[in-house]
Amino acid sequence: MFKRIEIDQERDLEDLVVKDPEAVEEGLKYLTHQRHANGKFIDVLAVDGDGVLVVIELKVGEEDEMLFQALEYYDWVSSNRDRLANEYKTRGKIVTEEDPRIILVASNFTDRLKKAVRYFEPRTTLMEYSYLSTKGGEKGLFCKEVINESESGFVPSVSLESALSYINPDNVKSACKKVHEEICRIGRDMEPIPRDGYIRYKCKNRVVGDISLRRTFFHVWWYKGNDEWDSAKLESLKEWNGKKAKILKAYEKQYRELGGN
Question: pLDDT per residue over 241-261, tens digit each?
Fold first, then answer.
């Protein structure tokens, strides 16, 4: 149904992100691109659904250096967040109390970069893109977050309460806790591992799924098969109740395939 279109120039990828920032992440709003910072230029500067500034670095192929380029821009954005909030106040509310984020967008990422991001601060999101066309000639940019299934090395866990404290509204926090409880009830071999920013669910030391935490919502991730992951953005129990049958079925399927009882 879809044909992949190759993007040869970084500026072409930049144009696509500028035109449709929500192709990268739901709720993302474009602020500016090629903004001068520390003697260089930020590919795209945006604000997310929580009002947090986002530095977006783009590459059409694998390039580990993009992580360190983004960090340079992050440093400038973090130091100038009040100025940027005032400059772009007509384009969206910017919460200056929150540290900015980094999103890296590329066609693929090396294992070296994926491993580096696991231990990197500030937390960085990896998004792999595809530029697709339909038989009818419609074209669109599609991005999916890279989930690090393997975990070599030690990543400290935290208490569930500590992990959930990242969420501000009590009703969203309560909904997330309910989702967590229902996932844990799938089986006795389901191992929840709360960490800063997310909760990982494992069975026999293999990943079943994740809940990634944001200030005012959370994403539930599940395995689709063929190295593909899917997610649902949730803000309430009502939304969860409408989707949980599908999501829990996917969790249970992965759990059983990994040998869970």
Answer: 999 999 999 999 999 999 998
